[in-house]
Amino acid sequence: MPKDNSIKTVLIIGSGPIIIGQACEFDYSGSQSARSLREEGINVILINSNPATIMTDPSMADHIYLKPLTTRSIIEILVAHPEIDAVLPTMGGQTALNLCLECDDKGIWADFGVRLIGVDINAINITEDREQFKQLLEKIDVPAAPASTATSFLEGKEIAQKFGFPLVIRPSFTLGGTGAAFVHNEEDFDDLLTYGLEASPIHEVLIDKALLGWKEYELELLRDKNDNVVIICTIENMDPMGIHTGDSITVAPAMTLSDRTFQKMRDLSIKMMRSIGNFAGGCNVQFAVSPDEKEDIVAIEINPRVSRSSALASKATGYPIAKIATKLALGYTLDELQNQITKSTSALFEPTLDYVIVKIPRWNFDKFEGADRTLGLQMKSVGEVMGIGRSFQEALHKATQSLEIKRNGLGADGKGNTNYDKIIEKLTHASWDRVFVIYDAIQHGIPLSRIHEITKIDMWFLKQYEELYILEKEISKYTLETLPKDLLLEAKQKGFADRQIAHMLNTLESKVHTLRDEMNINRVFKLVDTCAAEFPAKTPYYYSTFEAEIERPDGTRYVSNESIVSDKKKVIVLGSGPNRIGQGIEFDYSCVHGVLAAEECGYETIMINCNPETVSTDFDTANKLYFEPVFWEHIYDIIRHEKPEGVIVQLGGQTALKLAEKLEKNGIKILGTSFDALDLAEDRGRFSKLLEELNIPFPQFGVAKTAEQALQLAEKLDFPLLVRPSYVLGGQGMKIVINKKELEEHVIELLNSIPGNSLLLDHYLAGAIEAEADAICDGENVHIIGIMEHIEPCGVHSGDSHAMLPPFNLGEYVLNQIKDHTRKIAVALKTVGLINIQFAIKDDIVYIIEANPRASRTVPFIAKAYGEPYVNYATKVMLGHNKVTDFEFNPHLKGYAIKTPVFSFSKFKNVNKALGPEMKSTGESILFIENLRDDQFYDIYSRRKMYLSK
């Protein structure tokens, strides 16, 4: 039992819907925390309004409240559960901390006798209130940048006059750098100061002297009640100060820090954590270091909670920070807890890494028309990837291969920038693709000293880049037949993909793979083990690398592989890669449930994914985790190593689906719906023929490959037209056009950005109602798990629409058509598993917009609304373990559930907020109403057409 035996029931506050600055890393932390508490026999009550997460799954807590994160909701829960002893607010990001503070201000915790664990109110106030924090640093003698706080416009102007430019404006109590800005000159100051004061809930900003070009570091700490402190991880930002850490490329362990400065930084961070309050839990500290020999250190901020970086640090080291922080909050000490990886040593240790990790953010600027695409103090990325390798170069390459932006890594893919002015501009105004542009600059002959002068990125990193380019040049001198083995091995050890090497040698990827086989240059798998192999690791968490052969005394040669293949029957689940708009945390939810269901069916489960924020990449979710890019070459090598019964692709969104064709071609079994059926649903021509055979109506359409063909089609189809590229997710590139000029412009733009793609032109059913259905099918039997009606009219992407479950305005005649069409299509596609179908309803006729035989964005929402584990059932059907008729479906929902989209437009000034066929929301919440007279429903319904755009 925990040391503090008085704690029997704990309330965990979640982080709410996914927004830029607060993504699914808090779902991961919250899930781990809930499991950690329940291991101790503690009752867990959880509040979170996000239906798409594992954290809000019924299995995670004793009671889950899918309610808005407000003090009103907290009071309702405390009234219903007088047994709650303590609240843990450190797992739900800034949202949870702010709500916790508000409850404290209103005396709610005191009224109900609930105590705070994992942090104390003073710590939150000191660290969030910029003025208090500044005074604390002065008091404990920790260096800080010259700064002053302003609570009015006039005060701000006076401070600027005193300090001079450049300056940084940082609002108090905000998340993801909201409202923060660099001010380089007086002309911009007034606007940015006003914006900052408005962004802060207490209308306070800190104005400090800009430390432009200084190096930035983050430390993750844990402390117990006996004041033992361990530093779990030191993370170095490759990008210098001036770019938000959430938008920076980060590396662990720190690469360019002298040991002397590291020790000093450790001491300062421990001093800071001890000075902000007497609590047991986790902390994140950020420092700036001057880029000269002196290496002066300045403290930037401290967060007394699990942070975005804690999730990264947990995945980087294998040390489960949220799980241990939760146990410390209960009163355990570090030396009493077990190291989760070795199971034989204590948690009072600091991980040692014998590998390197690189995190690269993933942006979605294409969804925010008119957005400023340069990076700065305000976070703009929607997700991130992490690469693990034996060197910085290998990890960097693996991270770039994980991004899914049609790049094969750094260089050697023919897609680099070749325009000098463009390269200089992108280096000067930090761009989202700067990680690639640095390579382009070196390739273009721009000296490293010049790149360093512009970007202030440490020379060590730039030299690493230069080595990669020198190697590319060297390999390009050879052909496939003449390439020496040592050069091929070096290229693989430095992370170059087979595709890149094929590009250098002017040959095919498959031929490079064959050459590797012949030369015995094969991937080997290593354990992520926290102790650099000093103690044996018990956790099957792997990354791949390449090693030179070792010769035994008898002359035989081998390479060391730490991934031992068992003789059990195995199944691989392909993950969904980085979060992005159109493919978010809901696919992580599906993957986790898929893994657990396969385990229940007696399979050894293997997860492949590269997203450090998710529950699917937790080291104990699957029986084996390969933290690798969801990139063909990596997948194929793992499959050849593990030899599974088959691969599940329909739970990982478009990322996994895109690999289905290659799996099919290589004779690897796809579990569930076949590749042919997946392709048939994507291929508009084939799918329409199927609908014709089934006598199911669909909007008139045509396929065009040129602007000329599109204009000819327009004559036949009639405006308005919905134009979209095939095989894309989240409505990418979709637009409604109303005349020939708009059609021509959009088609030319699309064909330039996605060359060789077919464009689909549909007659747009103006004024139609949109609905969608999700179902499970075993090839013969179909069970419809939910039918949702969209509140917004047809033309707003389904991910951006409010969706009502069950429908609120569809008659029996229409509903019967929907049910009939769904069953017919699911069986005709030979669906085995999940299918989502979208409909447009006009004049009581139900038209098919599209069918996706895979897990959809809405499956977790329906599962939460009805309280049914639908992904579990669907996975068992995919595996052939069950038929749909084996399950007893018992959905229960009083009234209606509304899926409410959440947008992150506040991160982008002057962005076009209009909604249309291209998805723009970053997350969602769930709202339960008893009947249609509910004021919240009226409000949503009255605004349904407000943002509609073409």
Automatic annotation (TrEMBL):
TM segment ranges: none
Pfam family, one: CPSase_L_D3
Catalysed reactions, as listed in the record: hydrogencarbonate + NH4(+) + 2 ATP = carbamoyl phosphate + 2 ADP + phosphate + 2 H(+); hydrogencarbonate + L-glutamine + 2 ATP + H2O = carbamoyl phosphate + L-glutamate + 2 ADP + phosphate + 2 H(+)
Pathway involvement of the protein, from the record: Pyrimidine metabolism; UMP biosynthesis via de novo pathway; (S)-dihydroorotate from bicarbonate: step 1/3; Amino-acid biosynthesis; L-arginine biosynthesis; carbamoyl phosphate from bicarbonate: step 1/1
InterPro entries: ATP-grasp, ATP_grasp_subdomain_1, CarbamoylP_synth_lsu_oligo_sf, CPAse_ATP-bd, CPSase_dom, CPSase_lsu, CPSase_lsu_oligo, CPSase_preATP-grasp
Enzyme class: ligase
GO biological process: glutamine metabolic process; L-arginine biosynthetic process; pyrimidine nucleotide biosynthetic process
Residue intervals of the ATP-grasp domain: 134-330, 688-879
Amino-acid biosynthesis is among the record's keywords: yes
Record-given protein name: Carbamoyl-phosphate synthase large subunit
Organism of origin: Myroides pelagicus
Lineage of source species: Bacteria, Pseudomonadati, Bacteroidota, Flavobacteriia, Flavobacteriales
